[in-house]
Each structure stands twice: as C-alpha cells, then as structure tokens.
Write the structure tokens for this entry.
Amino acid sequence: MTHCDQTALLHEKLSLLVQIDRENWQQFVNHGRLTHYRAGESIFMPGESTSEIRFICEGLACHYYIKPDGTRRNKSFLQIAEVASSLSSMHSGQPARFGCEALQATLCLSLPYADFQQLCAALPVWQSVSQALLTRLALKKETREADLLLMSPTELYLQFCEQYPVLNQTLPNYHIASYLGISEVSLSRIRARLGVQNTYQRQKSHRH
C-alpha cells in the first residue's frame, strides 16, 4: 500500500477545510513519513520537546495532562485529520506541558515542523491549511474552556455523547471521566440517573 493510499482519508478530511489538489498533496506526503503507534503507546510524554507535527491518518489518540498529585486529565481526543503535537513546543523548542497517547492502533503522517513551515511558505494552499487548522484549534479550545466553566457534569456528559457517540460506547470509563473532569464514580452515577450504560461497561460486566 502506498503512502497516498494510507493517507487518503487524511486528504479527504483536510480538503473539507481547504481544497487540496493531487499535486499539492503529493508535495506534502513527500515531506512526511508514516509512523504507527500501538494502542496504549506514547506518542510523546509530558516534559518532552516535540519538533514534529503529526497528522492522524487513522485511529484515535488523546492529549492529556498529569496533575501535580499524579492524576491524569484528558485534554482532547484526536481523530482523523487532527494534529497530535504541542504547538508551543514546536514553536519554542521548550518541553511540552502535556503528553499524547494512542488509545487505539494509530497511524500518523509526521514531518518536522520546520519542514511544514517551509511548505506553507512555498505553497499557498498549505498556508491556507495551516491557518484553517489554527482557527479550528482556537475555536475548539474556546468552546472547551467555556463548557468546563459553565456546564454541569451531567450537561458535559450529554454533550460528550452527542459529539462522540462512538467513543461514548467504546472508551473505558476512566478516559471519559478524565475528559469530563470528574471521577469514575461520578460518571457511573450520572449514567445511572440517565439510565444508560455504554458498550464497554456491558462487555466488562459480562466477563465477570
């Protein structure tokens, strides 16, 4: 299978932001390399410097923080065409304050951030893609901050179910609870009040 075959979905998703023709796409793919990560494998750790920009081609990853008391707080879930990197670390060379983990078998197209910047300078379409990605990231961050400040845990959970219906059914409770900023016990209570149980929990219950 060629790089273009393995990156076809990435091309399709990014083209929803900015139309990318075959020639410009090939230029991008030629600068990158495909990297496979196993489920549970670290893509980068908190405290590591990351100079590569990684575009998810398939699978699922998660940005997360480790709090001073050692607890984990999931920052965002990353699916096809999202970027698994720390923008501040790529820009400054400083250690990333958060990490990234593959939650499923994940394939990324990775390239040095400096190479991506050169590509953006040389090809206007990639400058447009870069701007669209930054805008999307800023809007996502703004919405996430407002939701955490203004919504109740139950409202956050219902919104999560609407935004990520598949993840709600397949992710372990601790990943969902960590993303919502609550304990697994609190999540179970919310689900009990709503009369719902996800597929992961049903499968776990059947094994016991």
